[in-house]
Hints:
By secondary structure, the protein is mainly alpha-helical.
Amino acid sequence: MRELFARFGRSERSAGNQILTTGGRYALVAIVGLLALLGPVAAILEPFWLFVLVQILVFALLALSLDFVFGYAGLLSFGHAAMFGAGGYAAAILVAEVTPNALVVLPLAMLTGVVVAAVIGWFSVRARGIYFAMLTLAFAQMFYVIAFADVPAMVAGAESVTGGDNGIYGVALYELFGIVDFSDRINYYFMALALVTLSLVALVRLANSPFGRALQGIRENEERMAFVGYDVQRYKVVGFAISGGFAGLAGGLYVPFQSLAHPQLLHWTVSGELVVMLLLGGMGTLWGPMLGATAVILMEEMLAGVAAWEIILGGVFVVVVIFAPRGLAGVVVSLKNDPRNALKNAKDALLTYVRKVRGER
Length: 361
């Protein structure tokens, strides 16, 4: 685990907190403004791309939630699919049985993610490194089986709760007190854009608060933080629960838009893909994993017609890991700081890698 941070963790120190700078704030406003214009254009020209944009926003939020605990607290979770799926199932059940009001359902989906993450975190944070990752993976698979076998229906004696292997289909879209109808996909897009932007701002603020600094201290030296009086386990559980809340919110946004809550949402492959997004984008930067999620979703959609497109994605990932260990965020920062020497830096990175392969110093 320490080797992983040594390879990827530099991005936090060199590219982190970019959003808090004046330039970073302007860049954030510009990107949100661009996305606000892009949505209506996509809806008019090709509605399929509006679907892709919503998917990008949802997975950007999910990658952001994982980066908060992995990049800042050093907790590599392979269980974020559990919070994502739980939030999605909570949204599906609430919309079908209680109300489609977004102000009711989305906070409860977020709360579901917090509760699931708190349970997983409470049992897992005493383990470290790969053992913590395997525990979160095991819990996520348990939740997957619970949804797949519809265990809640067995316990409650009901006919169906999660819908078993078929899932819950035909999930209606949200509304807001009859004022805003989110069955209009462009309204849904703007809601997702607003929530993802607010989530990013909230997590950036939290990561740079005393609580976030304590999490970074735990990541760097857990024993020292415990020695000076911090309750390390409690900080980890709270950080993991906060991250789970945002993963639950992502699930709550994803399921109604897809009209389907399926056990596959809780499968470990979702968590694995999430880790790829995070490392591809740049761990510990918060905005980098969102960039990684955008790249992965775009590649999935654009290469879907190509056989074995996963090989292409794997090739891109290998290239980024070898030549840009700080991820896409590191590349963006390097281009911003030293655009004239971009080609020279790329050449130096290639030569450095060749020397390493040859065993030269």
